Amino acid sequence: ISKELPSPGCLGISKELPSPGHRGLNRKKKTKTNGTIYNYNAKTLNGSRSVSLREYMGKTVLFVNVLNALHKEMKDYGFTILGFPSNQFGKQEPGDNHEILASLKHVRPGNGFVPNFLLFQRGDVNGDTEQGVYTFLKNSCPPVGDSFGNPTNRLFWEPLKMNDIKWNFEKFLVGPDGKPVMRWFPRVTVDSVVPSLSSRVQASLSVHSGWAW
């Protein structure tokens, strides 16, 4: 397991609970991250088009890797939510892309749930086959936890790195300039996230008042 540290500029919010049997992590040389999310593309869940993340230029964007996260709580806070489902955490998202929406509507969370934010195709957020935008996000922000607990039959990627996403519900906030500004540990509650999001959005509105939202 390797430890990679990002360049400064993004705040990591950690509220990790200790887990027994965690693996240790070896420190590696600090890395420097350049660029923005606008260098990346992603395919929509139904495969109908490839979306350039340049479409979100000038907007505050929240990246989440579970589909029902923060749907009702945050839809009115003036930013865009992008959902990137992954099956790397306990195999909790096993369906094919065409099955995911039906699963959301009828199983989890169910009750006719229809997400009001854009969903992209299921993909990896950690490991050798991780999506490029997630490599960028993770390298831009400090890690928000220093252990994986016991990864046996829970974590499905290799190699494990210090800066990997530890579990579902980890979130990244990207500012209107396309650079990550905050990262939250999976167990940080919605109530804890909302004040930070609100202040970030208001600050961005003040600085970029001429940009579209």
From TrEMBL:
One of its GO terms (molecular function) is glutathione peroxidase activity. Gene3D superfamilies: Glutaredoxin. Its EC number is 1.11.1.9. Residues 12-32 are annotated as: Disordered. InterPro entries: Glutathione_peroxidase, GPX_CS, Thioredoxin-like_sf. Keywords: Oxidoreductase, Peroxidase. It is an enzyme of class 1 (oxidoreductase). GO terms for biological process: response to oxidative stress. Belongs to the glutathione peroxidase family. This is glutathione peroxidase.
